[in-house]
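Extended Data, panel c. Modelled sequence:
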Amino acid sequence: MAAGLGSRFGGVKQLAPVGPAGEAILDFSINDAQAAGFDRVVIIIRSEIESDVRDHLTAFHPGLSVSCVRQDDLGPERDKPWGTLHAVLSAVDAIESPFAVINADDYYGPQSFVLAADQLALSRPGAGANIAFRLGNTVPPHGAVTRALCRVSDHRLTAIVETDGCERLENGDLVAGGSIVPADTPTSMNLWCFDPTTLDLFQDAWNAFYRQHAHESKAECQLPTVVGELVATDRILIDVVSSPERWIGITNPDDHELARHALSHR
C-alpha cells in the first residue's frame, strides 16, 4: 500500500531514500518478499505519484513484473484517500491467490516475510494471519506513538486496539495508554495474510462504511478496524504469529534519519 499522502512527513515518503544506494523501504520489502518465495508484487498508488513510482521501480528492480493499481480509480473521487481497506479493494482485479498486505513505508525485516509465506501456504477460506511485532521492537527511543495492540488467546486474535501514548520510560519500562505493559505485547504493524475469499467480507464492510460516511471529507475505512470487527462477530479467524524482527517506519521527518541509520548496512 503506497497511496498515502504523507501529510506528516511532508513529501512522497514511499520513495524516501534510506538505503546505502538510495533504496526506499519498499525496495527492501520487495527483495525480502522475493527471497521468502513471493512471486508477484502489486503496488497500490495514487495517480499523481504513479510516474515517480514506476521510474523508481524500473531503476531499482529491472525486469521485475510489477502490477501498479491506482487507488483513486476505485473511487468515489476525493482528495484524501479512503483508507487502507479501500486500498486493498482497489487491487481486487490483481489478486488471484492468497496474498500478504504491507505498508510501503514500513520495514518488516526478512524473517517477517518468511513467516508470512508460511502462513499463506496454510491459507483457507474464512481465515487469515497477522505477523505481529513485539511492542518493544516498534517504539522509538524517545517520544510517544500510537500502536495497534493485539489481544490474543491461543494464538488467535480476539481484538485489536489502537492505543495512544506508547513510549519507553527512562528506566526501560514500556507504557501504553497510561499503563506499564510487557515489552513482548503483540503489536500489529499492518502485515496481514489473507485468502482471496476474504475480499467479499471486505467489500461488504466498505459498502456499509460508505453508506454511513459518504459525505465526510476525511473519514477513512481502515483495514485493522474492519478486521477487528470481523473477528468480534466471528466472521473471520486471524492467527497471530510473532516476528523477531525490529520494525522500522517513516511517519514524521525525524524518522527518516533513524531509518537511514538502521538500514545503512543492508
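The two ends are 22 Å apart (CA to CA). This feature is highlighted in the accompanying rendering.
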